[in-house]
Amino acid sequence: MTLPRVEIDLGKIRSNTRTLVQRLQRRGITTLGVTKAVCGHSGVANAMLSGGVSGLADARISNVERMRKAGITAPITLIRTPMVSQTENVVRHCEVSYNTEIAVIEQLGVEALKLGRVHSVILMVEMGDLRDGVPPDDLAACAIRVMSIPGVALKGIAANFACLGHIAPDQPKMSALSALAKELEGICGPVTQTVSGGGSVCIPWATQAPSRGRVNELRLGEAILLGLDPMTGGQIEGLRTDAFALKAEVIETKIKQQPLEGFEDRCSFRSILAIGCQDVDPASLHFPPNITLMGATSDHMVVESTTIPLKVGSECHIGMGYDALMRAMSAPDVAKVVLDDRPYHDGAVEKATVLS
Ligand SMILES: *Cc1c(COP(=O)(O)O)cnc(C)c1O
After folding, report:
1. Does the Cβ of 200 fall within 6 Å of ligand 1?
2. Which of 118, 297, 319, 351 could form a disulfide with 286 if both were Cys (CB 3.0 to 4.6 A apart)?
3. Which domains are assigned to the chain?
4. pLDDT at 261
5. Is the CB of residue 219 below 6 angstroms from any atom belonging to ligand 1?
């Protein structure tokens, strides 16, 4: 099989999705499956859908178009504010988009009218992450303005936590979001059908808080794909962390002597894997216990093996964190291979086959 490659176990993704969807459903919260880390891979998207997400979400229209081309008809939300230059495709392919700029929303309205549609808008509110978002003090004025724009409908508000900053979404922060929703409805009427709390960082809050308040949606990527809590890096209870694996081929194994004086006289087996920074983020890889990463360049990854030397031509199995996954899934020279030998009955597109 092609090397290097990412092996994707759709059964584990489906199982993680189902576990999270059910856990949040009990709290009155629906789940969107975020596909940006896998570049809108349609097998993964379909696994999320058969695991029960109520829709998909991605940050890039190119990924959304990939999913539409693959025949995915589920609702898709664009979770990065659209480029004005892409508004036509946003209206064409996404039911909903997250927005922070009136100029963009006006253009979405123009394109929606041309296509004879109504495009739903969610206003992103800045709650301390200092990435995207309308300041809370400007939210009501912004909402009133959006309600006057033909071709768009205001559907709700959303917040973002711990993306750029490291502000964890605690109870006061989430209560503040609920209070904003309530305040906005007092001014504008029922315009907060959706109150979207945030990404995987919100799961501890959502499962432990005494009340979810008005928050009724989370957008989950990392938790579904990797089973990890992005704040702590720890495994989320009940989830699989091995849905993805990276395989790279060993192209050199030699004993390399430390060249510098003053170093202890130490021999070790050094191997080179045919993969590099162009394909994957080396800092976000997890090697088996007998293998240590020594460094990487654009096309070479140097590892040291402490037990037996790695055989030239053999495959090295490597675990991936979020940044490694994201880069590997977007790298043209890394094959994406779907492993799915489970029977399933819910009519999704993937089959019991191996695709690349
Ligand atoms: C990436 C992203 C998410 C998903 O984040 P995870 O940590 O992968 O769950 C949610 N919302 C927005 C706006 C995002 O950009």
Report:
1. yes
2. 319
3. 10-226 (3.20.20.10), 244-355 (no CATH)
4. 62
5. yes
